[in-house]
Structure formats: C-alpha cells, structure tokens
Specification:
This protein has about 110 residues and is mainly alpha-helical. Helices cover about 40% and strands about 5% of the residues. It has one domain (about 10-105): Winged helix-like DNA-binding domain superfamily/Winged helix DNA-binding domain (Arc Repressor Mutant, subunit A). The chain contains six helices and four strands, in the order αβααβαββαα. The chain has a two-stranded parallel sheet. A two-stranded antiparallel ribbon has the order 3-4. Helix 1 (about 10-20) crosses helix 3 (about 40-50) and helix 2 crosses helix 3 (about 40-50). The radius of gyration is 13 Å and the shape is globular. The protein binds a DNA duplex (13 and 13 nucleotides) through helix 2, helix 3 and strand 2.
DNA sequence: TAGCTGACGAAAA
DNA sequence: TTTTTCGCCAGCT
C-alpha cells in the first residue's frame, strides 16, 4: 500500500471530523491517535489549516485542543464564529472554552473503534 | 534548496 | 503539583 487516496493523512482527518456527531466535539490528539499518529497531534491542526485547500467543507469548529479550548477559532472567518457554531449545536462555550468538555468529548477510537 | 513555522500533546524536571 | 522542553510531519517562504 502506497500512495492510496485514503493515505492522504489530511483527507483522513477531514473524514473523522465530518463523522463527529452534531453537538459533540473531538480533540486533535484523539484524531491523531485514531489515525495512529498520536505523537503528531500538530499535523491534525495543520490539516485543518490546509482544509481550505480542499473542496470539502470540514466542521473544524468541532475540533478543539485537549483542554477544550477553541484554539483554532482565530483561523475561522471570524474568531467568534467557532463559538457561535458550537453554541448553535447545543454546546456551552465560555471564554473560548467548552463547558463540561468531557461531556461533549467524542473519541473516534471509542465510537468508531474498528 | 534548506529552514522555519505551525489550530497539540505528553514527558521530564 | 506546575512549568518547561521536546517531539511530530508537512506545508510554506
């Protein structure tokens, strides 16, 4: 297996993010871990940054860091859009941080578990 | 071409 | 316990 379409690390990240159910959030580390590169949590965030290079919309607002902080909000159309989107899904966000983050946390390795 | 940055995370001190 | 440093890999200048 080499150079498979699914091999696209970024593409895989987008797929997982899209699989995140509405009203739930995941973390970069969880996605990285699910992809088998827990140590490369940074690449997951990079994938989001490069999401603009792809034609598929990626709900990056459902992806937050390990603390539940909307670290990537700054990369959205507006720094407040991310929080608005999360609140719209029923997630309480306070000071750019998700309340009861653990309650909303959605781990692909646990839910999608192959 | 080579080097730096970058939406994080975990381990070590 | 908290703070600091290193590691990850790919994209961009």
């Amino acid at each position: 297996m080499k150079s498979k379409p699914e091999s696209d690390f970024f593409y895989m990240v987008y797929e997982v993010v899209r699989l995140v159910p509405k009203g739930r959030v995941t973390t970069y580390g969880a996605i990285a871990k699910y992809l088998g590169m827990k140590g490369s949590s940074r690449m997951v965030g990079w994938a989001m940054n490069s999401s603009h290079s792809h034609h598929s919309p990626v709900p990056a607002h459902r992806v937050v860091n390990r603390e539940g902080l909307l670290t990537g909000k700054n990369h959205f159309a507006t720094p407040t859009m991310m929080q608005e989107l999360l609140e719209k899904e029923g997630i309480k966000v306070s000071k750019d941080k998700i309340s009861n983050f653990k309650n909303y946390f959605w781990d692909p390795s646990e839910e999608l578990k192959l």
